[in-house]
Amino acid sequence: MTLIETINAELKASMLAKDAERTGALRMLKSAIGYAQIEKKIEPLPDADVLVVVQKEAKKRRDAISEFERGGRVELAAKEAAELKVLEAFLPRQLSPEELEELVKAAIAEVGATSKKDMGLVMKAAQAKAAGRAEGKALSGLVNRLLP
User: Fold this and answer.
1) CATH class for domain 97-146?
2) Can you give the pLDDT of all 148 residues of the chain as single tens digits?
3) What are the C-alpha distances in Å from 131 to residues 24, 126, 148?
4) Closest listed residue to residue 100, CA positions, set 65, 138, 66, 64
5) In angstroms, rounded to a whole number, what is the distance separating the alpha carbons of residues 20 and 13?
6) Residue ranges per domain, the chain?
7) Residue 61: Cβ-neighbour burial (10 angstroms; 0-12, 13-18, 19+)
């Protein structure tokens, strides 16, 4: 079963259960996937591309949560957190801090980085190895910390 089929099945189940919050989040995700299909001109979007869309939408929610909390809008932050929880169900398991550090060390060794000037090369290698299982912000901070 492809990721799009899974999302459609979840949407149908949430509609039958009359779960308005989950249905809204899934409809938003389905809409974002539709826009990606139009942009790429590919009718059944491959799972890898669907995963990228889910990650983008999850990042939007994380950013919105921090902005709403900073602005004192707790009720809106809670709504975004509920949508984020729905989206995270479709994301792969995130790497632990230890696994992430090992991955970055391997990327540094693979690229042969010697200074912070090589950060771009290390980030590219690390992101390829992480394959959506780590946030770019966390990855960047770790690469910055580990490079001399």
Assistant:
1) mainly alpha
2) 888 999 999 999 999 999 999 999 999 999 999 999 999 888 888 888 888 899 899 999 999 999 999 999 999 999 999 999 999 898 888 888 888 888 888 888 888 877 788 788 888 888 888 777 777 788 888 888 877 7
3) 27, 9, 25
4) 138
5) 11
6) 3-88, 97-146
7) buried
- Residue 92 is encoded by which pair of tokens? 């792969």
Q: Which CATH architecture is the domain 3-88 placed in?
A: Orthogonal Bundle (1.10)
State the pTM of this model: 0.74
**DSSP annotation string for the chain:** --HHHHHHHHHHHHHHTT-HHHHHHHHHHHHHHHHHHHHHT-SS--HHHHHHHHHHHHHHHHHHHHHHHHTT-HHHHHHHHHHHHHHHTTSPPPPPHHHHHHHHHHHHHHHT--SGGGHHHHHHHHHHHHTTSS-HHHHHHHHHHH--
